[in-house]
Amino acid sequence: MYGGEFDGAAAFSGGGFMPSQATQAPDSSFSTSKNREGRPLLSVTVKQIQGGIDESNLFIDGVEVNNVTLVGMVCKKDDKVSEYTFLVDDGTGRIECSRWVQESIDTEEMEGVSVGMYVRVHGHLRSLQGKRFINAFSIRPIADFNEITGHFIECMYVHLYNTKIRGSVTQPQLANSRMSTPMKGYQAVAPNQFSTSYGIGSLDSLSQSVLNLLKHPTYLAREEGVHRLMIAEQLNTPMEKVMEALEHLQDNGCVYSTIDNDHYKSSVNG
Amino acid sequence: MDTSNPAVFVNGGLLRMYVGRRVRTVIQVLQSERGAVFGKSTDNLELVVKGSPSSIPLSTFVEVIGIADSEKSIRADIWTNFGDTFDTNSYNQLCQLASGEFKHLFV
């Protein structure tokens, strides 16, 4: 459904983020391909889903929507042999959610959900014969009701982000910022990007040296890591400086103490 | 999918804008009588909620969904216990935003 028949004109009319100096062929424009790879997860209200435009692709605030999360009350539940269907009312509207069950653990999850309960749904938004529904990956009861407030505030944030902030950043940054911020941890990050951005920018040179030492394959291989005396000796640095660096690294999650408070090991692989 | 009958997030002050329409709000229960519950809205106004709670006893905070009867009362058909701790301040701000700048996301 997010294939080559992508309707570029309709998609970009509202967003205005189509590169004017496009270097790629139109049918592989980054929005289509990025979304297919990225599968962003958006917090939405049912009202927003209804506002989508065409039949096969759904756009909210100029962003193609595949996966959504919403919070609402179950107002109807039907169970069939391999599928449960729920009508979820989030106060802005009602939408049908279906959950296919294969394993007994899925069945147990669904048996735990009953009419009148508040749930969080994660799923894939689908459209069939003009009718929208969600193929749910999970439907879980809400334990802390502040999550309801939080969800709707997040919907506003995502809307604001996609309509205002995204429109004001320049093209090259757009791909990154748009893909990362609203979806947070759901977005896959390339491993090498991860390790470079991982605190290293903020490390002073001693911390960096300590980290480099700890990342040495010989020390990484040792289960207990390296004794702090050894670090001080190797780097020819006073112990208190080494301790400062180690604490800093520990606060940033780069190193951890192992068998006792004197042995440290890098949490980042070389 | 059906968005014809939304329930608007309201606090005590916003209730007057939606008389006759479907609303949802969270109250702190002050007093419970047969057929009516007296409570405090998230903006510290007194509200009367008519109807019979489906779950008894009520927790400190209760969400009610129903028709706004007047500026100060709601005829509720859905009652949900929200427990004894709830962030009323955030909820109150949500109500403001959902009836203001972001209304189009809700109704």
Automatic annotation (TrEMBL), chain A:
Database matches in InterPro entries: NA-bd_OB-fold, NA-bd_OB_tRNA, RFA2-like, Rfa2/RPA32, RPA_C, WH-like_DNA-bd_sf, WH_DNA-bd_sf
Biased composition (Polar residues): 20-33
GO biological process, one term: double-strand break repair via homologous recombination
Region spans: Disordered: 17-36
Keyword list, A-Z: DNA damage, DNA recombination, DNA repair, DNA replication, DNA-binding, Nucleus
Residue span, Replication protein A C-terminal domain: 159-261
Localization of this protein: Nucleus
Function: Component of the replication protein A complex (RPA) required for DNA recombination, repair and replication. The activity of RPA is mediated by single-stranded DNA binding and protein interactions. Required fo cell division in meristems. Involved in the maintenance of transcriptional epigenetic gene silencing (TGS) at specific loci (including some transposons) by regulating histone H3 acetylation, 'Lys-4' and 'Lys-9' methylation.
Protein name as it appears in the record: Replication protein A 32 kDa subunit B
Automatic annotation (TrEMBL), chain B:
UniProt cross-references to InterPro entries, sorted A to Z: NA-bd_OB-fold, Rfa2
UniProt keyword terms in alphabetical order: Nucleus
Annotated family: Belongs to the replication factor A protein 3 family.
Protein name per the record: Replication protein A 14 kDa subunit B-like
Cellular compartment(s): Nucleus
Organism of this sequence: Tripterygium wilfordii
One Gene Ontology term of the molecular function aspect: DNA binding
Cellular component annotations (GO), alphabetically ordered: nuclear lumen
Gene3D superfamilies: Nucleic acid-binding proteins
Pfam family, one: Rep_fac-A_3
Swiss-Prot/TrEMBL GO biological process terms: DNA recombination; DNA repair; DNA replication
Main localization of the protein described in the UniProt heading: nucleus
Taxonomic lineage: Eukaryota, Viridiplantae, Streptophyta, Embryophyta, Tracheophyta
